[in-house]
């Protein structure tokens, strides 16, 4: 439990029907008494006057009193629900500070809830991710994590690893012929089953991370096809330089945008062709590298191009086999083709905007939808921990297959368990906690 009593405005800044101030810590009861008179009954809304230092009202509103440990943070908590104006909220906050409260750091309420065992790290992060969610799918996934699905999945894996380690360690003293012993009591099968479930969890979490942080779409194609124009049309601004010269774009240009609330990272790249000067060649190398790392490639073709320039390689040969591709047929204002879905791709004009709505809809549909119940909101750090856990389990599997001793296998399983523990916060460091909670909003 912390000594400091913290306070913050929990509603967004600006004007609103109601503004909420949140308090947590040991002096909460006395601060509330000083401002509203006698303590209200616990967990019931009471209408009171909020008094300033001269006794005159700063506002009137509802007060909520949650004596610890039955509160969000586990400490004594109170809320003042006043009118949502910036000046009145600030006056209430100043009054609490004058009475001895301290301004809460970003995420400090959630941090305290975690330290007091009220929520694990995946739930704390899910609260922040729900607030940040940019699409309905992301919000649904965040609520699943908030309700503990991710934490329970990880805890079940940890439990199975623990059981197996106990089993192995019990055998250590007697092991003469470890491989035979392991094969007999099904240890190999148990490790295999855990490996499969870690992989499945990694996949669901990976999808959740994509939902939250956005997928990477790479725009690629021949020089002058209109790639940069397409980026500008998607972004709705002149993000990239467009000229009539082939070979205009050299660097990879990174842009973030939203389509119906779905976050997207869109990369514009240099036109794919052999030759050119060293700068252009480097640009083409980077374009190929970006294509390898894409979640989807938009392959832009110039529908008005007269024949194929023999100096230009077929971009098809540059496409990585694992990345889905959407062919975008551009410049239909010149070729006279009609906009929208065609057999050979999606027909648009980046110049006139024809067909762009269909392209947006296509991106939203192919990247945004995921009704799979198995997606949890997840962050990069979760994926790293799941990868490390998978590596530990694989190591154990290899050791078991090679007939290694129980000790070695148990050791690798222990590493996997440690990595999973970082996800929920069963295993953690001050530094990690600082990094997580400092990115939360004030009042959260
Ligand atoms: N007004 C208000 N709305 C809010 C929050 C809040 O803090 N205040 N929340 C903040 O994130 C979220 C709800 N989460 C909360 C979780 C637990 C407790 C809580 O006080 N739990 C106690 C008492 C339960 C009870 O009254 O029965 C407990 O679990 O013991 C409050 C809010 C969203 N809405
Ligand atoms: N008429 C017409 N012109 C277009 C369209 N899209 C792009 N252009 C023109 O085509 C030329 C090349 O466009 P860019 O967007 O720079 O092409 P790019 O693929 O990025 O070219 P590089 O960066 O050189 O590889 C410019 O003159 C654009 O104005 C379109 O839909 N219709
Ligand atoms: Mg370009």
Can you walk through the features of this model?
The protein is of the alpha/beta class. It has 3 domains: about 5-120, 2-Layer Sandwich (Gyrase A, domain 2); about 135-210 and about 375-425, tRNA modification GTPase MnmE domain 2 (Four Helix Bundle (Hemerythrin (Met), subunit A)); about 220-365, P-loop containing nucleotide triphosphate hydrolases (Rossmann fold, 3-Layer(aba) Sandwich), CATH 3.40.50.300. It is built from 15 helices and 13 strands. It has helices spanning about 30-35, 85-100, 110-115, 120-130, 135-145, 150-170, 180-185, 185-215, 225-235, 280-290, 330-335, 355-370, 380-400, 405-425, 430-435, and strands spanning about 5-10, 15-25, 45-50, 55-65, 75-85, 100-105, 215-220, 255-260, 260-270, 295-300, 325-330, 340, 345. The strands form 2 sheets. Strands 8-9-7-10-11-13-12 form a 7-stranded mixed sheet, sandwiched between helices. α13 runs antiparallel to α14. The relative contact order is 0.13. The mean pLDDT is about 90. The structure holds ligand FFO, guanosine-5'-triphosphate and magnesium ion (MG). Magnesium ion binds near residues 227, 228, 240, 249 and 268. The ligand Nc1nc2c(c(=O)[nH]1)N(C=O)[C@@H](CNc1ccc(C(=O)N[C@@H](CCC(=O)O)C(=O)O)cc1)CN2 binds near residues 43 and 66.
């Amino acid at each position: 439990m912390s000594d400091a009593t913290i306070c913050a405005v929990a509603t967004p800044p600006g004007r609103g029907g109601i503004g909420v101030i949140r308090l947590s810590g040991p002096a909460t009861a006395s601060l509330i008494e000083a401002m509203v008179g006698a303590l209200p009954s616990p967990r019931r809304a009471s209408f009171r006057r909020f008094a300033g230092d001269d006794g005159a009202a700063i506002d009137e509103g509802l007060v909520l009193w949650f004596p610890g440990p039955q509160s969000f943070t586990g400490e004594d908590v109170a809320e003042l629900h006043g009118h949502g104006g910036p000046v009145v909220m600030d006056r209430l906050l100043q009054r609490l500070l004058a009475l001895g409260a301290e301004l809460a750091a970003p995420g400090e309420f959630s941090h305290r809830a975690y330290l007091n065992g009220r929520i694990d790290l995946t739930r704390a992060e899910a609260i922040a991710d729900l607030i940040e969610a940019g699409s309905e799918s992301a919000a649904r996934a965040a609520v699943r994590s908030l309700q503990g699905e991710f934490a329970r999945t990880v805890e079940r894996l940890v439990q199975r690893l623990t059981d197996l380690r106990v089993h192995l360690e019990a055998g250590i003293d007697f092991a003469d012929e470890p491989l035979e012993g392991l094969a007999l009591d099904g240890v190999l099968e148990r490790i295999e089953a855990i490996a499969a479930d870690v992989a499945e969890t990694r996949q669901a979490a990976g999808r959740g991370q994509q939902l939250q942080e956005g997928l990477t779409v790479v725009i690629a194609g021949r020089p002058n096809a209109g790639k940069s124009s397409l980026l500008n049309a998607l972004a709705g601004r002149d993000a990239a330089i467009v000229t009539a010269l082939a070979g205009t774009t050299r660097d990879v240009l990174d842009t973030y945008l939203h389509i119906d609330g779905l976050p997207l990272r869109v990369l514009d790249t240099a036109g794919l062709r052999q030759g050119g000067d060293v700068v252009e060649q480097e640009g083409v190398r980077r374009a190929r590298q970006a294509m390898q790392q894409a979640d989807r490639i938009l392959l832009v073709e110039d529908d008005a191009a007269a024949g194929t320039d023999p100096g230009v390689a077929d971009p098809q040969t540059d496409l990585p086999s694992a990345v889905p591709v959407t062919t975008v047929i551009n410049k239909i204002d010149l070729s006279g083709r009609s906009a929208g879905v065609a057999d050979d791709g999606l027909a648009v004009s980046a110049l006139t905007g024809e067909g762009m709505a269909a392209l947006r809809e296509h991106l939203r549909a192919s990247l945004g939808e995921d009704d799979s119940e198995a997606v949890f909101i997840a962050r990069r750090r979760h994926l790293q921990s799941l990868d490390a856990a998978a590596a530990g389990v694989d190591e154990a599997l290899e050791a078991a297959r090679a007939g290694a001793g129980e000790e070695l296998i148990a050791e690798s399983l222990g590493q996997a368990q440690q990595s999973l523990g970082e996800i929920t916060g069963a295993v953690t460091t001050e530094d990690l906690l600082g990094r997580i909670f400092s990115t939360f909003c004030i009042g959260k």
